[in-house]
Design a protein that fits this description.
351 residues; alpha/beta; eleven-stranded mixed sheet
Length: 351
Amino acid sequence: MHGFVRERSAAAGLVGLAALLLALAPAYGQGTSQHSQSWLDADLLAAAKAEGSVAVYMSTNEQEGLPLFKLFEDATGIKVNYVRAGDAMLMSRVAIEMRAGQTSFDILFSSAAHKVPPQMLAQYVPPQASSIAHAARDPDQRWHGVYANYNAPAYNSQKVQAAELPKTYEEFAQHSEWAGKVAIDSTDFEWLKAMFQHYGEQKATQLIRSIVAAVKPVVTDGHLALARSVAAGEYWISLNNYVMLSTNVKLAGGPVEIFPLDPVALFFSEVAVNAKAPHPNAARLAANFMLSQECQQFLSKFGRLPTRNDVSTNPPGIIELLTTKKIVTTLFKPEEEKKWQQTFAALFRPR
């Protein structure tokens, strides 16, 4: 039986964890690289099966995670135990366990993996990593992107006509009739950083303030909840949301469509191996599986956007649409979190 913990993500929980994680980092050595020809390499599989199980910490919901790792279990005979929680809760749990000298998890599957101090993660290049996009590969070889998290506005096609949609973020400020019908998640710091990188600090600040003044966006809690609220007509437009979640709601029958604008922020849900994994061979085998075509095809059924170019999006053509715009990859360390949290709050706080 799989073990999992359901915990709610809290962006504020990431702030302040950096110092604790960094303080713990020296106790962690550098992992050794393992190599195999496929994710079911016979030698690695034999060593992994001898370890018996693999422990996964992940932020992807259990409705996707349980059947995904059932594929791994069926192929390998290795039991998967996982803890499911939001990114902030996972970071907090990792910090607490490291401080206590515990090594409870084998792999971390989270969009916050790149924020873990590097000494805590093994340097490992899964063989399947050669098939993923270069932007999804950590130059330091400590994490790899399993699926891509593009950011773009979305709208309820029953409430707003496509012809009415802004063609730039500047045009949002021309739609005061949408006041109170536009929303954004309170943790969209990657999107905010992309806006600043694209426009420059001064122009981005002025632009966002003009949008806030015109449409008075509601600040919500939870990207999936926001996508569902747009589909339900509670909000007509999301100023920004995760494309994969807007797509997930569309696949479920919701009247939601994305309309990407410059810039499109991009980050990844990443897999990383614990430098002191209790089951190091099973960890490496599982990490390789996460980058495989089989895994990414499975995840694409839920609207997740693959990092492999030999896996199609669902529905087709999403990445091709997104890449007609300026893509800005936004990865930042925990010590940056507080800055972007404060900037976001200052810009979206009612004036």
